[in-house]
Amino acid sequence: MDQGFDNAYLQNPHVAALIQDTLLLFDGERYKLSAWVIMPNHMHLLLKPIEGHTLSGILHSLKSYTASEANKLLNRKGKFWMEDYFGRYIRNAEHFARTVVYIESNPVKARLCKEPSEWRFSSAWMRAHKEVN
């Protein structure tokens, strides 16, 4: 799945950039974004909703907007994202740290790059390029 088989719309760099830019747009306003990776056919996020915002509301807004805009970029119509998402609670600092490593190592595990910081559409890349704290 990680290597981008099936509907790998996110392998299009314009679509991946759209999604990453949208994620970053509301960081600090609707949620605190700690880690992310946009793979060829899925993404992983580690975020904490800010008071007044819910995870379901955040994801609904994110998926609705990016689906509409990505479909325009791809000159297509129809379903873009899976209906649901897989959410997990972070239990402690160790679990948080393991989750960041898991997310940022996804492209390496999929043999898409050698180091997490080489994957352009990720928190690891942005941190390595001093664009994320």
Outline the structure in words.
The chain is of the alpha+beta class and 133 residues long. The chain has one domain (9-128): Alpha-Beta Plaits, CATH 3.30.70.1290. Helix content is 42%, strand content 11%. It contains four helices and two strands. It has a two-stranded antiparallel sheet with strand order 1-2. A hairpin with a 4-residue loop joins strand 1 and strand 2. Helix 1 packs antiparallel against helix 2. Mean pLDDT is 91; it is low at 1-5.
Brief digest:
Helices cover 42% and strands 11% of the residues. It is built from 4 helices and 2 strands.
List keywords for this structure.
4 helices; 133 residues; disordered N terminus; Alpha-Beta Plaits
What can be said about the biggest beta sheet? 2 strands, antiparallel
Radius of gyration: 14 Å
CATH class: Alpha Beta
**What's the CATH topology name?**
Alpha-Beta Plaits
Helical residues, percent:
40-55%
Shape: globular
The CATH architecture assignment turns out to be 2-Layer Sandwich
The H/E string reads HEEHHH
Report the end-to-end length measured between terminal Cα atoms. 30 Å
Uncertain segments: 1-5
Number of domains: 1
Q: What amount of the residues lies in strands?
A: 5-15%
User: How are strands sequenced across the largest beta sheet?
Assistant: 1-2
Structural class: alpha+beta
The mean pLDDT is 91
Alpha plus pi helix count: 4
How many runs of DSSP E, i.e. beta strands?
Answer: 2
Q: Looking at this structure, what is the CATH superfamily? A: Transposase IS200-like
